[in-house]
TrEMBL record:
Protein name (database record): ABC transporter ATP-binding protein
Record keywords, A-Z: ATP-binding, Membrane, Nucleotide-binding, Transmembrane, Transmembrane helix
Position of the signal peptide: none
InterPro entries from the UniProt entry: ABC1_TM_dom, ABC1_TM_sf, ABC_transporter-like_ATP-bd, ABC_transporter-like_CS, P-loop_NTPase, Type_1_exporter
Domain ABC transmembrane type-1 residue range list: 33-313
Molecular functions per Gene Ontology: ATP binding
Gene3D superfamilies attached to this UniProt entry: ABC transporter type 1, transmembrane domain (1.20.1560.10), P-loop containing nucleotide triphosphate hydrolases (3.40.50.300)
Lineage: Bacteria, Bacillati, Actinomycetota, Actinomycetes, Streptosporangiales
Transmembrane segments: 29-48, 68-88, 145-164, 170-189, 259-279, 285-304
Location(s) in or outside the cell: Cell membrane
Lineage: superkingdom: Bacteria
Domain ABC transporter: 322-559
Length: 562
């Protein structure tokens, strides 16, 4: 059994949707060609069966028992080959579908991790969700249909050759009739894809609306807006339903045409063949064979229509995928190196000394966030790390050495132990030490299986304060060279906040740490406090020194209270 997906999906060709599909097919060329081989064999065996049945009927008519036995054995053998080739064709079809679809999942997941904060700025949540929900399936279908589509073409050509060699008028009728039917169905594909595209856009917008409602549910309930947004969601969902009905209308016409048009061809071929049989131009066995060929052709002709539909959908889906794959991160790294040391943001003047527990208190919370983003290389800025400019370091190195932990971080589903120890290198002692520093030991103790408890998506079973403490523990377990915490205690009570402030200093002893906060309990534990106003450093010192020497700082951290 082969493992899917591949360890390395490779570097895709994103110059155009067609090139991406071609590259995807090329990555699995051996399995694709093998599948096409089985599909061709599967269709060919079915194409030969009417001729064998015709020969058998002629043997019955002529009362030729040896010939009847021979053709019966041939038919039995063809049946065995069809069964084997059908099983293998389906097996290879599933494999190729999975390989193509999940290679796309790997690429988009890798790109999402590479883009980081850039992705939600460039694409809506619904757009990204739609790629994962539908586009990967269309790409898988476009690769899968190549197997049956190629076999169908070979089968139609084979039947046409047989009919022409037996009866030139009937062969020419099939040869001309198949393209005419394909041309008759083709005009339905464009409105179908247009309506499908519109439905997908509405579905993406609805997914975005749902994500926004879930994310802001507490706020909506607090301001009484839950019913308003619920009504909007209901109206938009009806628009999606209406779009789906319109898509189904075109699909039903297409499905009907795929039955009616081949049926007309069958009737025509059978009628002309019957007139030839009555006139004695062809024997009865050949008449039966012609009828069976006409019935058989429904399959490959419908497959060709299906192929046109799926390849078109795959082309459109590939266009949306390469839109994601072609995005570039807002910030990129270089190839430089740094031995570490002082981390300094020249714009604001904030300087972090190695091994110190520092704090930034900003008059405007957005200024502190902007400083954290520049120091963590999530935004461009004139930042130096030791003797090197931060922008010259490889982005992977920056992410491994400097960790910015803010309240936009999320808990994912899975074992709590794996969620906290994201690198898989921490011991139980390391984890418990971090949990204690974050005052999160009680959270784990209350869980039925402790650290082995399965966490629901986004940590829904935990309160806001519990999630914040667990995220802090995760950051401490990572133990980066530089840790930047943005309001790490904003959702916890004063008693827990005081204990976290006291334990945090001990947990990060000898490591560079910056806390962006205006909490007096936390600021009082910092070795060095930096007060920022209008994006610039206005005062520095200890918390108590700044309380006495900087009225603006005192007003910010005490909220104007005496």
């Amino acid at each position: 059994m082969r493992s899917l997906p591949e360890a390395d999906p490779g570097v895709p060709d994103i110059r155009s949707p067609l090139r991406y599909l071609w590259w995807n097919a090329g990555r699995q060329a051996p399995s694709l060609l093998l599948g096409i081989g089985f599909a061709v064999l599967w269709w060919l065996v079915q194409a030969l069966m009417p001729a064998v049945l015709g020969q058998g009927i002629q043997a019955v008519t002529a009362k030729d028992t040896p010939s009847l036995v021979t053709w019966s054995a041939v038919l039995f053998g063809l049946g065995l080959i069809q069964a084997f080739s059908g099983i293998m064709r389906h097996r290879m079809a599933v494999y190729n579908w999975l390989a193509a679809a999940y290679r796309t999942v790997q690429l988009t997941s890798r790109q999402a991790a590479r883009l980081g904060a850039t992705l939600p700025k460039r694409l809506s949540t619904g757009e990204v969700v739609s790629v994962g929900n539908s586009d990967i399936a269309h790409i898988g279908n476009s690769i899968d249909i190549l197997l049956r589509g190629t076999g169908a073409v070979v089968a139609i050509v084979t039947v046409t050759v047989i009919l022409i060699s037996t009866s030139l008028p009937l062969g020419l009728l099939v040869l001309v009739g198949v393209p005419i039917m394909a041309a008759a169905v083709a005009p339905l594909l464009r409105p179908l894809h247009r309506r499908q595209r519109h439905q997908r856009e509405l579905t993406g917008e609805l997914s975005t609306r749902a994500a926004d409602i879930v994310a802001g549910l507490r706020v909506l309930r607090g301001v009484g807006g839950e019913q308003v947004f619920s009504r909007r969601y209901r109206d938009e969902s009806q628009d999606v339903r209406g779009a789906g009905v319109r898509v189904a209308g075109v699909e039903s016409v297409l499905e009907g045409a795929q039955i009616v048009l081949p049926g007309l061809l069958i009737a025509l071929v059978t009628g002309i063949g019957a007139s030839f049989a009555v006139a004695g131009d062809i024997p009865t066995g050949q008449l039966v064979a012609f009828y069976l060929y006409a019935v058989f052709l429904i399959g490959p002709m419908r497959t060709l229509t299906e192929a046109a539909d799926k390849l078109t959908k795959g082309h459109v889906a590939a266009g949306r995928v390469i839109r994601i794959l072609s995005l570039e991160p807002e910030v990129t790294g270089g190839t430089g190196s740094s031995a570490g040391g002082v981390l300094r943001d020249s714009y604001s003047g904030v300087t972090l000394q190695p091994g110190w527990l520092s704090a930034v208190a900003a008059a405007a919370p957005g200024d502190a966030i902007a400083i954290a983003d520049r120091l963590g290389r999530y935004a461009d800025g004139d930042v130096t790390f030791g003797s090197a400019e931060l922008r010259t370091l490889p982005i992977d190195e920056v992410r491994s050495r400097i960790l910015v932990a803010d309240n936009d971080a999320r808990l994912f589903n899975g074992r709590l132990r794996d969620e906290l120890d994201v690198r898989g290198q921490a011991t139980d002692e390391d984890i418990h030490r971090a949990l204690r520093a974050a005052c999160a030991t009680d959270i784990v103790d209350a869980l039925p299986d402790g650290l082995d408890t399965e966490v629901a998506e986004a940590g829904r079973e935990f309160s806001g304060g519990q999630q914040q403490r667990l995220r802090l523990a995760r950051a401490l377990i990572t133990d980066p060279e530089v840790l930047i915490l943005v309001e790490p205690t904003s959702a916890v009570d004063a008693h827990s906040e005081a204990r976290i402030a006291e334990r945090l200093a001990a947990a990060r002893a000898g490591r560079t740490t910056l806390i962006c906060t205006t909490s007096p309990l936390v600021l009082d534990r910092a070795e060095h406090v930096i007060y920022v106003e209008e994006g610039r450093v206005l005062a520095e010192g200890t918390h108590r020194q700044l309380l006495d020497g900087s009225p603006a700082y005192a007003a910010t951290v005490t909220r104007g209270e005496d």
